Amino acid sequence: MKRFHVNVRIKDLTESVAFYTALFGTAPTVLKDDYAKWMLEDPRINFAISLHPENAGIEHLGIQAESPEELAEVYGRLKNAKSAIREEGKCTCCYAKSEKSWITDSQGVDWEAFYSFGSATVYGEGQNARPASQPKNAVEV
After folding, report:
1. How far apart are CA 71 and CA 92, in angstroms?
2. What is the pLDDT of residues 97-118, one digit of tens each?
3. CA angle, corner 53, sides to 40 and 103, nearest 5?
4. If you count DSSP H runs as helices and E runs as strands, how many of each does the chain have, helices first?
5. Can you give the pTM of this predicted structure?
6. Measuring CA to CA, how many Å separate 100 from each of 21, 31, 88, 90, 114?
């Protein structure tokens, strides 16, 4: 079963983690110095926040597949959307190893279709690389 994904750029990680922990009624499943993620079952969502104090707001939306077969299904839907697809392939992003592609809707909202198959110790590599502080109290559950 696929999972809806939302990534929000935030100004203050501590404040935002406290807010979303209260809102969702649970602590994040991944917590780094610049990132947090909640893998919720009700509602079924991968909700992530990334520290970007200079540009807070919606980063992107997406659909997370649970298998390569589901990813192929979602990728087929991207093709039907009749917009340019940016195939990223295998990558490291958001402290995870994934395979993904991107598409932008007619309003300029970026959507990603991805399948994650492992964790990573860095936020990203390649086109996803960005400077990140060294994790002091990194926790992954």
Report:
1. 17
2. 999 999 999 889 999 999 999 9
3. 60
4. 2, 9
5. 0.79
6. 28, 22, 6, 7, 4
